[in-house]
Amino acid sequence: MFKLFSSSNIYLFIQQLIKFINSIFFLILLIGLTFALILSPPDYLQGDTVRIMYVHVPSAWIGLACFSLITLLSVLNFIFKIKNFYFINKSLAPIGLLFTCLAIITGSLWGQPTWGTWWAWDARLTSMLALMLFYIFYILTFKFLNTEELIIKVSSIIAIIGSINLPIIKYSVEWWTTLHQPASIKITGSNSIHSEMMLPLMVMLLVFLLYAALIFLMKYKTEIIRIKKKNIKR
Amino acid sequence: MISNFITMNGYGLYVWLSFSIVFISCTVVYFKTKKTLKKYEKDFLAELQTLTLEEKNKVLATSKIAQQILTTSSKVN
Questions:
Q1: How confident is the model at residue A181 (pLDDT cuts 50, 70, 90)?
Q2: Alpha-carbon dihedral sign for residues A137, A64, A160, A162
Q3: Could you say which of B12, B41, B64 has the minimum Cβ distance to residue A225?
Q4: Among A34-48, A184-198, B5-19, B42-56, whose mean pLDDT is lowest?
C-alpha cells in the first residue's frame, strides 16, 4: 500500500496526468472561450463587462483555494512532519500568487466601467491585496532562508497568520458596506446567477483548474527531480 | 455582428484586456515552468554522466525516476 505512494510511482503518475491534461486542455479551453465570449448573454445591468467575470471569479476562487490548502498542509506538516507537504506547498504557492494577481487585475478592469474607478480601499479589494502580500512573503521564505527546517517553520507561521484573512475575504461583502457586490454563488442557499451565465462560469473554472493542476504537476515533478539529483551520489 | 463582438458594445477594451492579460500571463508561466523542468532534467542527466558505469547502472536499476528521465530525454533528442 505504502509502496504505491513511493516517489517513483508518484512520478510516473504525474507523467501520465500531465499527458492527459495536455490532451484535453485546448478542447475545453475552446469550449470555455466560446461560451464566455460568444454564447453567454450580456448582463441586463452591466452589459458585456460581465464577461470579465469568467476570468475574474475562477482566478479569485483558485487564489483562495490554494492558500486554504497551503494552510491546511502547513498545519499538518507542523504536527506530523510530512516532508511531502512542504514540496506540495512550495509548488502551490506560485500558482496561488498568479491567480490572486489575476483576480485583482481583472477585478480592477471590471471595476472601472462598473464602479467608475480602478481601485478603492474597500474591504474585499483590500483583503485580496493582503492575500497577495501573504503569498509574496510565503514565496520569499523559500528564496531567502537557508535551511529547510527554518523555511518550514517560517512559511507555516506565515500561512497560519494569513489564513485569518481568508474568512475576512469571504465575508467582507456581508460585514462591511463595500463597492464589491455580494456573493452570487453560494454553496448553501440559492444562487442569484442565471444558468446561461453559470454554465460558462463552470466551464471556465474547469479550464483554470486544469491549468493550475498542470502547472502544479510540473512544479512538483521539478521538486522530485531536484531531490533525486541531490541524492544521486548517496 | 463581428464589429459587435470586437467592440462588446463599447466595453471591448476592458473585456479583451482582461482576457489577454490572463492568457499572456498563463502562457508565460507555463513556458517558464516547462523550461525549469527541462533544465532540472538536463542537470539530473549531467549529474548521472559524472558517475562511473557501475554507479550509473546501479542508479538506473534502482530508480524508476532516473529511467524515466533518461527515456524522455532520449525521445526528445
A1: confident
A2: positive
A3: B41
A4: A184-198
| DSSP secondary structure letter of residue A36 | I
Q: Give the integer Cα–Cα distance in Å for A67 and A95.
A: 10
Average pLDDT of chain B to the nearest whole number: 87
Domain ranges, ordered by start, for chain A: 25-39+48-186+193-224
Q: Do B33 and A229 touch (CB under 8 A)?
A: no
Residue that the C-alpha cell 474547469 belongs to: A206
Interface probe, candidates B5, B24, B26, chain A, greatest A C-beta count within 10 A: B26
Chain B environment of A58 (Cβ under 8 Å): none
Taking the C-alpha atoms of residue A128 and residue A123, their distance in angstroms, rounded to an integer, is 9
- Domain span holding position B45: 2-76
Q: If pLDDT is split at 50, 70 and 90, which confidence band does A5 have?
A: low
Question: What ipTM, to 2 d.p.?
Answer: 0.91
The number of C-beta contacts closer than 8 angstroms across A and B is: 104
